[in-house]
Amino acid sequence: MKVFILIFISLIFFGTNAQPASNLSLGHLEEIANRKKIVYKRDSEFAPSSPFNDKLFIDFNNSISDVELLSLTEHRDAYVRCFAFQALVQRKHPDTFSILLIHLTEYDLVKIHLNDTSSSSYVGDYFLILVNPENVWSDIKKLSGAERRAINHLLLANNENKLVAKSDLLRGKK
């Protein structure tokens, strides 16, 4: 009984990981989940389209702590997981690679909207696209040579892997 009371008191004082606390507006999470797409936008006429320029992403990223982002990479909604990982990539968080490994073979589909076209991607693919050293976005966390070799090994060892980004990563420079 004492253990139960201590756990209950701890939950009251420290909260649970069931939902994010403090800075994050639950409205952002609902809007992300309800929008059902990841939008690539340009920050200037000649710049490449980027998921980091989307207003909803910027507002989300500005309202949340690293601890909350780490928790949201396990959220039930695939779009929330993608936004959380994207924010960690932009912040160059040191746990980015370990989170990528956890979600590498995640096959929930997310819709990606680029200019006037839409496509779908597996969550694992989207995570790989974000950290691929060959992508055009600068000032974000990208796979190091050792991380890339480790991912390549995992992707090659798993013949059942459905990821499309697998070939893009494997084709790149070693």
Molecular structure report:
This protein has 174 residues and is mainly α. The chain is built from nine helices and three strands. A three-stranded mixed sheet has the order 1-2-3. Strand 2 (109-114) and strand 3 form a beta hairpin. The longest helix is centred in the N-terminal third of the chain and has 13 residues, at 2-14. The N and C termini lie far apart (57 Å).
How many strand elements?
3
Rg of Cα set? 18 Å
Distance, first to last CA: 57 Å
Overall mean pLDDT stands at 78
Topology as H/E string?
A: HHEHHHHEEHHH
Question: Can you give keywords for this protein?
Answer:
174 residues
Summarize the structure.
By secondary structure, the chain is mainly alpha-helical.
What is the secondary structure topology, with strand pairs?
Layout: H1 2-14, H2 26-35, E1 38-40, H3 55-62, H4 66-72, H5 78-90, H6 96-103, E2 109-114, E3 117-122, H7 123-131, H8 145-157, H9 165-171
Helix pairs in contact: 2-3, 4-5, 5-7, 7-9
